[in-house]
Design a protein that fits this description.
Elements: H1 4-10, H2 19-28, E1 30-34, E2 39-41, E3 49-63, E4 69-75, E5 80-81, H3 83-88, E6 95-108, H4 109-116, H5 120-143
Antiparallel strand pairs: 1-6, 2-6, 3-4, 3-5, 3-6
Amino acid sequence: MENTDDIISGSSLFSRLKGEDRKRLAAAAQRKRMSAGTILCREGEPGDAIFIVMQGSLSILAKNDDGEDEELTRLQNGAVVGEISVVTGSPRTATVKVASDSWVMRIPGEVVMEVLTEHPAILADLRRLGLARSEDTLHRILTEDVPIDADD
């Protein structure tokens, strides 16, 4: 398995960071082996960390009209999850479940923000990513004929 700095530098989110900034993230990172079926984070929880899939896969879940979790997408090696909540300070917008036995890197949100506040272009990219994900979710809702509650 790759070392922590290589995984961070290989991430599209952090690839533009200089070595010193990547080392700050790597020093705070924790590697976790997680079994399939484990919930990594739940919708509505505070976003206190981001996660990078080192090996394995994660399912992004949202509640359907029946209140059941429905898979929106599946993330593979190198994918980053949880960054939008960390950057915006808003609660998690989806539940993330480990789809197959995986290795995941957890980086505390406060360390991520310390580094990213020094890189406004990367923060702007994250905001665009959050908007793109919101648009994708809206598109899924509209194309699947899911009724939208007018009271929301």
